[in-house]
């Protein structure tokens, strides 16, 4: 059995990172229809419970691309500002973006006409699961 020395650090991904990783996998599986519908670059600024930004993510779905990664200051068409808890509920389909927008738990900046594109990133709970 191998032991871990004190100078080695274990890496545990955040819930946000896991959510975007799952989204990336879903886009790779069934992304053609999603990229055609969205055709934009979406940014997400994830906010912690104290109101500070903890992570920024970029989703590039222009011209058939399916890029999901941490943002490094790139220009996006729209930015969604959301708390980590609300992001988890949104990406698992337990919460609808319209409700989050109306209650101001999801805010947007950028091209407002793209705000409805977020619905294509959310798994459709009405579909039957594939077993």
Automatic annotation (TrEMBL):
Gene3D superfamilies: SCP2 sterol-binding domain. This is SCP2 domain-containing protein. It comes from Patiria miniata (Bat star). InterPro entries: SCP2_sterol-bd_dom (IPR003033), SCP2_sterol-bd_dom_sf (IPR036527). Residues 31-117 form the SCP2 domain. SUPFAM superfamilies: SCP-like. GO terms for cellular component: cytosol.
